[in-house]
Design brief:
Blueprint (H helix, E strand, L loop, with lengths): L7 H4 L11 H23 L3 H27 L5 H19 L9 H25 L3 H26 L2 H21 L9 H28 L5 H22 L2 H11 L2 H14 L1 H20 L7 H25 L5 H12 L1 H4 L4 H22 L1 H8 L5
Helix pairs in contact: 2-3, 2-4, 2-8, 2-12, 3-5, 3-7, 4-5, 5-6, 6-7, 8-9, 8-10, 8-12, 9-12, 9-16, 10-11, 10-13, 12-13, 13-14, 13-16, 14-16
Amino acid sequence: MDAAAIPQELLEGSVEEEKRVTALELFFDLVFVFSITQVTGFVSADPSWVRLAEGLAILAVLWFGWSGYAWLGNTADAEEEHLRVMLIGAMGAMLVTSLAVPHAFGRYGLIFGLGYFAVRSLHLATYTYVARAQNDAQLGSVVARLGTTMMPAAALLVLAGALDGPARTACWAAALAVDYGDILVRGIDGWRIIPGHFAERHGLVIIIALGESLVSLGVGADRLELTAGVIAAALLGLLVAAALWWAYFDVVAIVGERRLRLADATKQALIARDSYTYLHLPMMAGIILFAIGVKRTLIELHAHLQAVPASALCGGIALYLIALSAFKRRNIGTFNTQRLLAAALLVAMIPLATAVPALLALGIVTAVACGLIAFEVRRYAETRQRIRHPQAN
C-alpha cells in the first residue's frame, strides 16, 4: 500500500476509548458460526453449480440477518437485562434457521422461512424497544421505515418455503433484492453508529469465518487416514487462512476503522453501509468458498478437482481479494493493484486446478496467497510501520 495515496490522518490516526463488543454479542455470533458451517457442509457434500448458487443465496440472507443485529448492538446496550432476553430469543430463532439450512431449498424450506421471519421480527421488536427506552424519536422513525421492507422480505422467504421450482427461486431473488436494495435506494438517513465498536464487530466476524475454514479442514481430515498428504493439505490450508487473515488485519482493518472514526455522522453511516454491510459479504463469501474447496481437496487429495470445487478453491480467494481492494477504493479512493492482479491470476488458474492433483492445486493457490503477502510486507514496509505503530513515528 503506497503511503502517498493515504491521507496523513489515516496513517497516524489516534485511537480513543469507546464502546467495545460485549460477551453477549460474541455469544450471539456463535450461532452465526454454526449457520456458516451448515452452508459449507451443504455445498461441499455434493458440489454442483445449483448447490453453489443456493448456498450463496442462503449466505446472503443469513448475512443480512446478522448485519441487522450488528447495527442493533452498536446502538443498544447488549448487557441490559431486557435486551439479553430478547437477543437470546433471537439466538433461538437463528439456531432453528441454521438447522434448516441444508434443506432450505427443499423439505425444510418452510421451517427456514419461519425461523428467519422470527429472527427479523425479534430484531425489529428489539430495535423498537431500544428506541422507546432511549426516548429517541429519530431512531424510532428509521426503525419503522426499515420494517416496511424488512418484514415483507422475510415474508417472501416464508412463501418460498411453501412453494417449489421457479416460484421458490423468484421469491428468494425478490427477498434479497428488497433487503439489499432498500438501504441503497432509500438511503440510511437518521442512522448513527459508534465507529470502533462497528469495525471491531465486523473484524471479529471475519475471524469467525476464517475459523470456519479451519473447522472444515478438521472435519474433512477427521474422516481420513492421517497420511503425509492429508497433513500437507491441512498445513497448506492453514497457510492460506493465515494469508487471508494477514491481508485484512495487518493494515486494512486499521485504516478502515480510522476512516470510519474520522468521518462526520452522515458519512459514517454511509461508510458503515458500503464498507461493512455490503463489502464484507463478498469477503465472507470468499472465505466460505475457499473452505468448500479445501474440504473437497482433502477428500480428493490425489484426484483432480471437479469444476465447482476448483472454482471455489481459486475463486474464493480471488473474490476475497477483490472485495478487499473495493474496500480500499471506498475508503481511500484507489484500488489495490497487486491484489487485483493476484485475483486475476487465481481465476485464470481454475482450469489448471481441474487438471492437476488436488493437493498440487492447493499448493499453487497457497503460493499465490502467501507470495502476495510476502510482496506487500517487503514493498510497503515503511507504510505498514507508520500505520501500525503511529506512536513510534
